[in-house]
Design goal:
Strand order of the largest sheet: 1-3-2
CATH topology: Arc Repressor Mutant, subunit A
Order of helices and strands: HEHHEEH
Distance between the termini: 29 Å
Shape: elongated
Helix content: 40-55%
Number of domains: 1
CATH superfamily: Winged helix-like DNA-binding domain superfamily/Winged helix DNA-binding domain
CATH architecture: Orthogonal Bundle
Radius of gyration: 16 Å
Structural class: alpha+beta
CATH class: Mainly Alpha
Number of helices: 4
Length: 108
Amino acid sequence: MALREQSYLILLALSQDPLHGYGVIKAVRELSEDRVRLGAGTLYGALDRLAGDGLVSVVKEEVVDGRHRRYYDLTGHGRQVLTEETTRLSRLAAKAQRRLNLQPGMGA
C-alpha cells in the first residue's frame, strides 16, 4: 500500500508514542525538516482517513485547559503498513542512488 507523503509522515510521527494533534504537527515538521507543515484541517482529515483504513486509532481523550485533546497511536496494521512503505522507499532510494551514481547519504 503506497502512502501519500503526509500520511507516511503522520504514521512515522506516531511510531514511537501516542500523540495528540499538535504533537503530530510538530513531529511532522521535524521529520520533514520543516518542509511539510500540516494545518489542523489537513491533519484531522488525514487522521480520519487513516483511522478509517485501520492504520491509527484514538487511544486516549482528555480535556486540558478547557480544550479537548485526543491521542492517536498506530494500530498493528498501521505499523505493518509503515514498515512495508519504509522498505519500499528505501529500495527506491537505493535504485535512484545507483542511477545517479551517488554514494549513499550524499546529495547532488
